[in-house]
Amino acid sequence: MSMVSPAAHPSPETAAHVGGAAIEISGLSKQFGAVKAVDGVSLSVQPGEFLALLGPSGSGKTSILMSIAGFELPDAGRISIDGKDVTYLPASQRNLGMVFQKYTLFPHLTVLDNVAFGLKMRGVARAERHKLAAQALATVRLDGYGARMPAQLSGGQQQRVALARAIVYRPKVLLMDEPLSALDKNLREEMQLEIKRLQSQLGITVVFVTHDQGEALTMADRVAILNQGRIQQLDAPRALYEKPQTRFVAGFIGETNFVPVQVGPLRPTGALVQMPGGVGAREVRSDALVGRIAANSAAVAAIRPEQITLGRMDDPAALQATVSGVIYSGSTVLCIAQLADGTELRARLPDPSRVAVSSGDRVGLLWPDDALRIYGDDVHGAPAR
Ligand SMILES: Nc1ncnc2c1ncn2[C@@H]1O[C@H](COP(=O)(O)OP(=O)(O)OP(=O)(O)O)[C@@H](O)[C@H]1O
Ligand SMILES: [Mg+2]
Questions:
Q1: Which ligand minimizes its atom distance to the CA of 55?
Q2: I need a surface site. Which of 22, 107, 182, 221 has the fewest CB within 10 A?
Q3: Are 209 and 310 in the same domain?
Q4: For residue range 116-149, what is the model confidence (pLDDT) as tens digits?
Q5: Using CA atoms, how far apart are residues 326 and 128, in angstroms rounded to an integer?
Q6: What are phi and psi of 54, to 5 degrees?
Q7: Are residues 25 and 124 in the same domain?
Q8: What does pTM read for this prediction?
Q9: What is the largest CA-CA distance in the chain?
């Protein structure tokens, strides 16, 4: 991948910093027949922030984006942009840039005319719109491509044209719905950097829909995790990974082991938790108890595979297990181990050259005290198990 610094492209002039608008959404709901596509979503996006909406298929991501854009009318709730209520404002008056998964360029227009098309509709004079379109093309590093037809561009270049078309009006908000999912992996990563660069150059607010967690975590300042039309958690990437607030988020972001546990008595500082397979109960601190946890009840423990290490069977702190599989995967080794009651745990071990276990070995599983999080019934009403 070649990254060219903006300084290497002195001409033509690129689009200047326009700044970003704040977006405020409160109590947004949208129902299609019996399906609650959006179910009481409230969120604020800061000016210039990059917010990702991440969630499984059908979780309501596009419906939220379309409501912000004005292409979908909500059943309830309010949306304001830059402090102005736009809930019922027609899409054409919101001045937002939009990029979709399909580039939908006009095949019979040149690249320059594709980018200038919207300006023409708005009555901008020819010389001016060509100047603005050329600037937008330079901003996405396609200067010199204006005379080509879309069919003469690669997929990534076509998506850049779509980006140029979205920013040519100098909007303060850019809405993107899975803009990179049609591209192959390398091009996708290149475009991820390109979009980040564009965003910081223009200072624009971005709301970016994706179902690719890697893309959301690397690109966004904050990520809203959606499930069934509701926000499960809205947080910075690191907080989502390290402190998931619901079991759904713990399972959705990264790899996680879920283990059935028995919660014992509650104490002011935490709870005693009994793992399956008989090591003594351990105290889990209050801040690692998530959702509604009752004394003397069943719950689910979550632990990341990379936090588990292998120790000796006779270590009193270790959970005894039998290795049932060892999978080499380049920089790490995945070790699958079974507890006496059949519960399976996965340990992702760094440094494959030093991993000397094989199927059938008896091992002790260890992890740091703060690696366990215990999930009771979650606040969205989903049972722990
Ligand atoms: N126009 C529509 N008519 C009927 N149902 C709809 C309509 N648009 C969305 N839905 C339903 O609303 C729910 C949310 O859809 P939405 O498109 O917002 O999900 P999404 O998170 O964008 O999913 P994907 O990742 O598949 O694009 C889904 O169950 C979907 O079937
Ligand atoms: Mg969608």
A1: 1
A2: 107
A3: no
A4: 998 998 899 999 999 999 999 998 889 999 999 9
A5: 64
A6: -125, 135
A7: yes
A8: 0.88
A9: 81
